[in-house]
Amino acid sequence: MVSASATAPVARPIRLGMVGGGQGAFIAAVHRMAARLDGHYVLVAGALSSDPERARASAAELGLDPDRSYGSFEEMARAESARPDGIEAVSIVTPNHMHYPAAKAFLEAGIHVICDKPLTSSLEDAKALVETVRKSGRLFVLTHNYSGYPMIRQARQMVQEGVLGDIILAQAEYPQDWLSEPLEQSGNKQASWRTDPARSGVGGATGDIGTHAYQLITFVTGLHAESVAADLDRFVPGRQLDDNAHVMLRFAERNGRRAKGTIWVSQVAPGNENGLKLRVYGTKGGLEWVQADPNYLWYTPLGEPKRLITRGGAGANQAAASVTRIPSGHPEGYLEAFATLYTEAAGAIRALRDGGSLPENHLLPTVEDGLEGMRFIQACVTSSNKDAAWTRLDSL
Amino acid sequence: MVSASATAPVARPIRLGMVGGGQGAFIAAVHRMAARLDGHYVLVAGALSSDPERARASAAELGLDPDRSYGSFEEMARAESARPDGIEAVSIVTPNHMHYPAAKAFLEAGIHVICDKPLTSSLEDAKALVETVRKSGRLFVLTHNYSGYPMIRQARQMVQEGVLGDIILAQAEYPQDWLSEPLEQSGNKQASWRTDPARSGVGGATGDIGTHAYQLITFVTGLHAESVAADLDRFVPGRQLDDNAHVMLRFAERNGRRAKGTIWVSQVAPGNENGLKLRVYGTKGGLEWVQADPNYLWYTPLGEPKRLITRGGAGANQAAASVTRIPSGHPEGYLEAFATLYTEAAGAIRALRDGGSLPENHLLPTVEDGLEGMRFIQACVTSSNKDAAWTRLDSL
Amino acid sequence: MVSASATAPVARPIRLGMVGGGQGAFIAAVHRMAARLDGHYVLVAGALSSDPERARASAAELGLDPDRSYGSFEEMARAESARPDGIEAVSIVTPNHMHYPAAKAFLEAGIHVICDKPLTSSLEDAKALVETVRKSGRLFVLTHNYSGYPMIRQARQMVQEGVLGDIILAQAEYPQDWLSEPLEQSGNKQASWRTDPARSGVGGATGDIGTHAYQLITFVTGLHAESVAADLDRFVPGRQLDDNAHVMLRFAERNGRRAKGTIWVSQVAPGNENGLKLRVYGTKGGLEWVQADPNYLWYTPLGEPKRLITRGGAGANQAAASVTRIPSGHPEGYLEAFATLYTEAAGAIRALRDGGSLPENHLLPTVEDGLEGMRFIQACVTSSNKDAAWTRLDSL
Amino acid sequence: MVSASATAPVARPIRLGMVGGGQGAFIAAVHRMAARLDGHYVLVAGALSSDPERARASAAELGLDPDRSYGSFEEMARAESARPDGIEAVSIVTPNHMHYPAAKAFLEAGIHVICDKPLTSSLEDAKALVETVRKSGRLFVLTHNYSGYPMIRQARQMVQEGVLGDIILAQAEYPQDWLSEPLEQSGNKQASWRTDPARSGVGGATGDIGTHAYQLITFVTGLHAESVAADLDRFVPGRQLDDNAHVMLRFAERNGRRAKGTIWVSQVAPGNENGLKLRVYGTKGGLEWVQADPNYLWYTPLGEPKRLITRGGAGANQAAASVTRIPSGHPEGYLEAFATLYTEAAGAIRALRDGGSLPENHLLPTVEDGLEGMRFIQACVTSSNKDAAWTRLDSL
């Protein structure tokens, strides 16, 4: 019932660096906890802030050797790659516009990259980064962390095994309410960069959480959107990027069937904290999963009573069990799912370190997944600008 | 806490007739229970089936006087309007294509009409029926029964009072799974007429349940769709009408704001029985309601903990209390909500009988609401046929 | 899927009288709605209040012939039994202390009795009433209405079929909060008689809702308490009867096993409206049901995922289906369950009217069930007075 | 919103040892993950198994220096206390009967102890351990991990602030189903020692999970049981210790009121995984919390709608916020709550290391709490053996 991840060797932890993530950065703390949970990493270097004083203070707080607290990612990439005990991997947790240059610097210095989403702040950067990764031979992991949840892995395996029959519908929603008021106008740091096209890119909610919703659909169903019709709004006056999006999807055909889908993302829906929800329906059954209660997966076989599959419980399959740490009934959460990506990345890094190659059937989100996410953002924006006209992702 | 409806005088029940509703008809039995619950009606006549033998057997089963079991609605309208003790109102529970001619016959005979939804099987009939009703001076009630639920009344009042601020989003979904297989090809009566354009009209799921979803939005929010962009599917091979619809809505502006919405209806989503759900978000708070658990209303004020308002509980407002029959914690259901429409119709009929007029602020769904529903169906079909182009309801 | 009850003949409704139930009485209105829903009864006589003016006004409101509005139940029993069109059955909805004398009067007048719970206000009366019923040859139904819920019927059949294996645990709870403050001291009518030993008997919460909880356990499991150990409290200062009870149960052995149980009832647990809940565990599986959401039954087979059985859904068995009125997903509620008792009583009355006898396998709560409930109340009180000593029900 | 724990200095992690926890031990892996999550510890030594081969393999798997993998806890205590870089604290994760001797050895060697529950396998050992801890001046933490959940901290603060008024009822339940079959007879290691009096002590379910339930009640309400009346069962034939317990509690008076309570624990209730649930009712409101969904706390103020407080949401208080790692809506779970105890223990250890003393208002479960838990177990067993007679905890 308990996966290998909980007991895997921690003898030789991977040396990790971090770009971004100075004091006050929410997602950076998440990355650090995720890296620590299973004991596969040790954080030894950082370019934690573009503000030197803040960088220094943050490094001290994290117990970094002052010599390995850098003023810029460029300096860090150069210096660490020159050290015999330099970092083997780096976590990039900056605002979106820095993902590409930072990732490029480390990949070209031979360092593996674990990068927050969305991939970049522009489609052009995304395309370039795909090339950079391919040339580098290094590991690139995009932290679409929801795909680390055991019940999401369960769902994916069930779809692959045909339990649901042919998939006809896939729907995801990710409502929040934290931007219901114009926080970006009163100095909130998280709000400011996320609503700023220069740092976020063309997508607001679409980029920040829409890419998660989209990735979750593709991860579980294996379906890919051929085109989208989107209606984006900026409900808060003065906001520069969308804070609500209604999206209809047409997936590429599979087995002669064209499935359909919807995505709703919002940052202005009062009462919703991080209400990520996925529903998938096939000709023989359905699945439903909600992030706020992630240890449950509803499985609804056609013509039979609904079943509630629990992480670690009797109905859990191999894909779920292999990323489960504790017995059923004891809840795992967001950090555990996030840590699973880090742990699987550690496995991949060790495989590469030992001269091997990435396992073909690994489940880590890739740079190509990131590019697809960027096409999704751009397609939504383009469609919305054209009165919700269907827009092909591959046209962008 | 207990409304007048439960104790209202039953001394002079209204004489009711029924068109359609022979043995095996689900919705007819519902109408009869709804009419009985509060004691305001007595069923005395019927044209229960176009099959004379079935009509006779059904009438006997219901205890009707054989003389008042008619072979056709025309005959019934004629005969009953000539009797001194003739029916005062009639319930029309036939397939859609019969609504218009039957309603017309009774209205022109001076008999009030309670009619199942959708209004008619064509937009033309719907427009004609609006005129017929207006000329008749009789009551016409369309049984959009979900608007009879106490928590829906509660929601409506809360929106009107401005508790949610300006409404920006309204979303309804109504998934079912009973047509996941081609039941209409194996003689299922309910499935057959609902998937037959000649009897249902141009909408499948859109007409059967989409109109409920749409009416619920308009009832609660007071918003009306200016246009829709719809993607309709027939996922079951050979099916003639849509069994799944994704619809985006643009509501007419109100107070300088344009709210947006979505509707999802499906008859092919395994695990969904009658999953009607409504979500409304404003600038100051949200509401969420699910038909399967109708005694609860989630109210989510921005920046405060969610509150679960219960029918009859401490947070119930006047609108809810006035249609509540039993104490909080004891569940009311579908039949009670349906009965509320019948009881309110009885009040209206008595007011008209006594020479008065319909109360201005009554909440009964009208023929105009029915016409708006028919425009919604047609707009969805038209939009879907034009690759989901935005289609104005008032253009039809 | 829809039971006979919804379409059963209403041609010859049973003539019904009512004792108690003047204006403002909650449960009387419930009985009347329950009697009306399926069309098997017509209310024609009443002794609605001991206050003549109130009796008259209530009768008028209900449309009773003034000649059949009586000043006392004795007068009513006498007069109605003398009429050729006299009542065939009577509903007794008075405070507890009147149940016995009223029931006796009607039974001895040859009139069937439908009586609210608990059976009487004293164990002595209860024992006497059992004899009275047996001698009378008339039907006596105690309205333990929760046993009319389809999912409770489902549970009972599942236990009988051995789906759960041998039952080892049965737990019921019924918390409310409406007596958290001393309402009886400020004139609340419902609170006053329920907290008054002279009208309620020795049990407060134990009598009013504890008997429901106990009956539900016995109905579903077929187990009967051999003894109880109870700790009763009166948390509200000045209250005369228990407003909270913790009870442990030892059931009589069955198949060499002794199952155990608990009952918790409270009227002072804030946030609980009518939180009746039942849990049953056997060696092979468990069941869980909550009255507030009565259309669901959790079935938890050992070693398999939990299943959510829905009224009318794929997992519903014959016992559930036979008391189901509308399709799955449309909620039925409290009134429907209550009406099922009335409808089944109507079937029994017709069988007796036609010279037959009561079906052996009927599911109506009997006078003997009522006596067992009275023993349960007395055993709880006796045990609590003896420092929670185990007290046998058959010792009383 | 994010607590200090997530960003606290990790510069000087505490050197930790572990006793027990060789391969296959569930709870040991939990302790290690909990110790790692916030970065306050580094595991450097272990006496991981009494089987030398298993001890060695486990140590290697965890990356321990072979020199610091010991064959016994005595040897480890001796050797580590002699090293300048010896462990500062030890985690004891053995079966219960080893807790006392191991804790004694380390405390007397000047090493802080973090020990799994229940405190010991006998009341005598427990009393002795209290003395040992007091004499040692070292920190002793009992890992009643559920008290680390943010919503449990929230509940405790709410009770202390009087939000609920005077507490009248406290109820906990902790049902499981994993021992529904006699696993101990087929070699299951976890089941074997837990059902063995020699290793577990006199309590089965009572000891293993009953102490958690009891501690949770005392932690949140501040109430302490004066006496219990318990009915223990061994439903699985051949089992030596209780696998189900029904317990009634009388709490010591507070403010002139005597609150009552119940505890139900079971290991044989099919469908329950780790169904820990707490309900607390006062004169002004109630609280309800369920471990499986730990990020929610229901708050039910009397006479107002229920409120759902979420970890990190608008209603979260200081006590909750201070142990919260990630934003609301992203679920935290069991490991995070467990880690909070480790992190708070780290703070205490650092305070003691720096020559200070334990903060008076710390929330870590103490050896005295452990002794109270042992009295609870013994009182339940004694009471059950005396036909559920009320048994005072302070009589033992």
From TrEMBL, chains A, B, C, D:
Question: Which residues does the UniProt record annotate as the domain GFO/IDH/MocA-like oxidoreductase?
Answer: 152-288
Q: Which domain of life is it from?
A: Bacteria
Q: Name one Pfam family in it.
A: GFO_IDH_MocA_C3
SUPFAM superfamilies assigned to the protein according to its UniProt record, in alphabetical order = Glyceraldehyde-3-phosphate dehydrogenase-like, C-terminal domain, NAD(P)-binding Rossmann-fold domains
Report domain Gfo/Idh/MocA-like oxidoreductase N-terminal positions: 14-142
- Signal sequence span is none
Question: What InterPro entries does this protein map onto?
Answer: Gfo/Idh/MocA-like_OxRdtase_N (IPR000683), Gfo/Idh/MocA_oxidoreduct (IPR051317), GFO_IDH_MocA-like_dom (IPR055170), NAD(P)-bd_dom_sf (IPR036291)
MF GO annotations: nucleotide binding
Descriptive protein name: Gfo/Idh/MocA family oxidoreductase
Protein's organism: Chelativorans petroleitrophicus
